[in-house]
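Continuing the series of single-chain predictions for the mutant panel. This is the parent chain; the variants come on the following pages.
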Amino acid sequence: MSTGIMQARRPPIDSCINMITWRINWCQFQQQLKTVTQDEREGWWAEGAGLMDALLGRDRTAFMKAGHPSQFTRYLCGLHDGHTILCLQDSKSLGDEAYGGAGQAFSRQRPG
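Parent structure:
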């Protein structure tokens, strides 16, 4: 890589898994706080369940909607966030396709 150019890179899969795992741990931590209400605790549980499902490649949307309707939105939030984090690693940017896998690049040098 030349001095003035930095390549934009997708994060490695381990990094994506670590991001999701960190979020799951955060949800579990929030459930343990004494200041949260029962509804908030269940919301953190549902969000963590959505993140875990994204990580494991499963979708329990129908089950969560039927069994836990009050927490369904939080489950979807976790599931969507988990999928988004995983897509950071899986997606190919327009720059990758347009430039034969060279990736997006930007220069730190000023033009002219």
